[in-house]
């Protein structure tokens, strides 16, 4: 299967956002960085100092905000407090076989109060309706993966009834459950 390069939205640039340079772990022959630690080549709020020669992992990664016009333009991760990662199904556990989407979306709440954004409920509901696996997540401490919870099964009835109040309650409950979860160490760094 030939891997297609994602289509990047016109007008959406990383600029000074360095969220992915902090959140994501990288483990390649050329470069290693654990989760939730600013990359040594990055200046917080300014960007990558080795952008032209950055590792392939970085070169090929785009957050969902850069890829998807359904994500509001105002949701640039460092401003909205919401980082959305598209991840291939084979790299994530806990997705029932009933979902045929080739990817899942992980909505990482950088600020827990982001769960109260009405547009977040609407956006997640749209993916649940289309049977795309959706996870809500909270970042862990340095060296740990985010705590995450699959939302689809809990939200399906509220989405089918188009009940934003019930969907908001489910997101709040999921956030509380995430706050009680233990974080898992990044396997390559544990």
Write the layout of secondary structure elements.
Elements: H1 19-23, E1 26-27, E2 32-33, E3 42-43, E4 47-48, H2 56-60, H3 64-67, H4 77-80, E5 82-88, E6 103-109, H5 118-129, E7 134-138, E8 147-150, H6 152-160, H7 164-180
Parallel strand pairs: 6-7
Antiparallel strand pairs: 1-2, 3-4, 5-6, 7-8
CA distance, first residue to last residue: 33 Å
Q: How helical, in percent, are the residues?
A: 25-40%
Q: Largest sheet, described in full? A: 4 strands, mixed
Structural class, by secondary structure, is: alpha+beta
Name the helix and strand elements from N-terminus to C-terminus, one letter apiece.
HEEEEHHHEEHEEHH
Strand order of the largest sheet: 5-6-7-8
Shape: globular
Mean pLDDT: 91
Radius of gyration: 17 Å
Low-confidence stretches: none
- Give the tally of β-strands: 8
As an assembly, this protein is single chain
The percent range for strand residues is 15-25%
Q: Give the count of helical stretches.
A: 7
């Amino acid at each position: 299967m030939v891997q297609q390069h994602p289509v990047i939205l016109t007008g959406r640039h990383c600029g000074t956002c360095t969220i992915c340079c902090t959140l994501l772990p990288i483990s390649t022959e050329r470069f290693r960085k654990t989760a939730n630690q600013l990359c040594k080549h990055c200046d917080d709020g300014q960007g990558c100092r080795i952008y032209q020669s950055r590792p392939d992992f970085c070169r090929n990664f785009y957050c969902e905000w850069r890829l998807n016009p359904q994500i509001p333009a105002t949701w640039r991760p460092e401003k909205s407090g919401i980082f959305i990662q598209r991840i291939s199904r084979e790299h994530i556990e806990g997705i029932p076989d009933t979902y045929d989407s080739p990817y899942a979306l992980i909505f990482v709440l950088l600020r827990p109060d982001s769960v109260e954004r009405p547009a977040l409920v609407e956006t997640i509901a749209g993916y649940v309706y289309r049977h795309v696996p959706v996870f809500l997540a909270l970042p862990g401490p340095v060296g740990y993966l985010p705590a995450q919870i699959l939302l689809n099964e809990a939200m399906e009835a509220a989405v089918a009834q188009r009940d934003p109040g019930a969907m908001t309650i489910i997101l709040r409950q999921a956030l509380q459950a995430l706050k009680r979860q233990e974080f898992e160490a990044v396997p390559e760094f544990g």
